[in-house]
Amino acid sequence: MISPRVIANRQLAAYNARNLAAFMALFADDAWLEDMPTGERRATGKDAITEIYRARFGDNPKLNCKVHARIDLGDYAIDHETITGLADGSEINCIAIYEVRDALIRSVRFIRPAET
Fold this sequence. Notes:
The chain is an alpha+beta fold. It is 28% helix and 44% strand.
């Protein structure tokens, strides 16, 4: 059995390589992305997630995610991440909660600090 941490680490490597095929191979067909504080679903289904990351990888050739802390519990791999290399020069600081079952990411929930 492959642990959620192994899947999260593979996803991170594919993200940093901007390898869309390897990245999306880790998601279940019915996976979804959610902004946790608002409860807004950012994407539902592999096709919708693919389009988000196709644009992110294409628009940001220096994209990089650094993980500062990791927590694992049951079906969840939880990372404190900073995304850099965005074309506009901004950074994203967030918590990403990866729900993994049967060696596939079922959902990713993001927590970002409120903007001040």
